[in-house]
Amino acid sequence: MKISEVIRSCRKKENLTQEQVASYLNISAPAVNKWENGISYPDITLLSPLARVLKIDVNTLLAFNEELTDAEVNKFAKEVGEMVSKEGYQKAFERGGNLIRQYSSCDELILRISTLLRLHLAASQTEEKDKYEGKLIAWIEFVAAGSNEKTASMAKISLSAIYREKEEYEKAQEMLDKIPEPELGIEKKIQQALLFESSGKIEETYGVCEEMLLKDAHEALGVLSLIIGLLLKENKFSEAEEYTERAKWLVGMFDLGAYHKYALDLSLAKEKQDKEKAIEIIINMVNEADSIDDFMKSKLYRHRKLKVTNSWSKDKYERLVKGTIKQDKTLDFVKSDPKIKFLLE
C-alpha cells in the first residue's frame, strides 16, 4: 500500500475529513488532498503528528517503502551532489527533499543527503542560507531521534558539531551525552575534545586527547602482538621479528613501559626454544616488573581526568610477574634452570 493510500484509508477509518486533518497539522486542506492523490508527500517533520492524528505509528504510515541498499543510497547521494554543480543548489535541495519524503523510513539516506547538502550550502552563494540550514538540521534531528542506534549516533555527532559551530555549547554537550559509549567511540571523543576546546576548557581537552592516545596505543600494541603470534605459528620468524621491532618502538614512543618490550622478545624466544635468550629476558622482565604501568607516570598522559594513585610496591609487581611465569606452561623448557628456579622462589 502506498503512503497516499495509507493516509486516505486511515483518515476515513477515523471518520476525519481532509480539512480536519489539515487543521490538526496546521496546514492547508489542498496539501492533504495532494498527499492522498500521490502528487506530493508529507514533510518529514509532519510524519509523527500525522501518524498520531491517524492513530497509527510512523512505521505503519511508511510501510510502503522498502529498505534501500547501500548502493541505492550512494546513487541518490551522487545524483544530488552532481545536481548542485549542474542545476544549482535550490534544485539539488528540492531533489534531496523529495527523496527524503519518498524514503522517509531510510535514516541512512536522510542523514547522507542532509550532510551532503549542508556541505554544499557552506560553499554556495545561494540566498536564504538560514532557511536551508534550518531544514537540514531538522532532518538530521529526525534521524537522531530514530531507532537505528548507529545512524542515530552519527546524526548526534553531526548535531553536536553544528551546535558547537553556533556556540550553543550546552546543546552540543547534550547531544554527545546521548550517544551510547560503545557507539562511535573515536568520533564522539574527538567531538568532545573540540567542544571542550571551543568552550575554553583546555585542561579537559588535553585529558580527552590523552585518553584517546593511551587507548589507541594499547589497542595498537594488542593488534601487533596478535599479528606476531600468527606469524610465529606460520614459522615466519623474519616477519615476526620485524613486527616485534615495530611493536617495541610503539612501546617506547608511547611510554608503555620496558616490561612490555621484554614480553614481546619472550614470544620469539619461546617459539624458537632459545633457552639462553629466554632466561635472560625473564630476568629482565622481573627486574623491570614495576614498569608495567609506566604510562601512569608519563608526561604524555598527565592531564587524564581519571588518574589512579598507584600504591603497588616494586615487590608486588615482581610477585605478579613471577606468578605469571610460573603458570606459563610454554616456559617449562627453562624452569629447571638454576637461575630461573632461584628467581621464582
From TrEMBL:
Q: SUPFAM superfamilies per the record?
A: lambda repressor-like DNA-binding domains
Keyword annotations: DNA-binding
- Cross-referenced InterPro entries, in alphabetical order? Cro/C1-type_HTH (IPR001387), Lambda_DNA-bd_dom_sf (IPR010982)
Domain of life assignment: Bacteria
* PROSITE patterns on file: HTH_CROC1
Single GO term (MF) = DNA binding
Q: Which Pfam families match?
A: HTH_3
Where the record annotates domain HTH cro/C1-type, the positions are 7-61
Listed SMART domains = HTH_XRE
PANTHER family (alphabetical): HTH-TYPE TRANSCRIPTIONAL REGULATOR XRE, TRACRIPTIONAL REGULATORY PROTEIN-RELATED-RELATED
Query: What is the protein name for this chain?
Result: Helix-turn-helix
